[in-house]
Predict the 3D structure of the following.
Amino acid sequence: MYPTSCDTFVALPPSTEGQRIVFGKNSDRPCDEVQEVVYFPAKDHEAEEKVECTYIEIEQVAHTYAVVLSRPAWLWGAEMGANEHQVCIGNEAVWGKESVDGEEALLGMDLV
């Protein structure tokens, strides 16, 4: 049986003790899929540098911030993460009625 939903939440002051911000997310990934927690330091990149995402290659930005990510081991993107500026994000699946053309593209998790 595979899970079919995931949720992300945040609790902000004054609802938390000590003026803390609480971020949480559950994952709808298969229970036997390996999840990695990885750290990538901040980095300056060369002009014209490319980055290989899960299925496609895109242009790299000039500078990336340090991040901690939680992700399935087999893909480039992530389920959730936080950067050095305390920005947190969680990926959520979205279903639509439009048909896809079958062309390889970025995944939602590649955007995290």
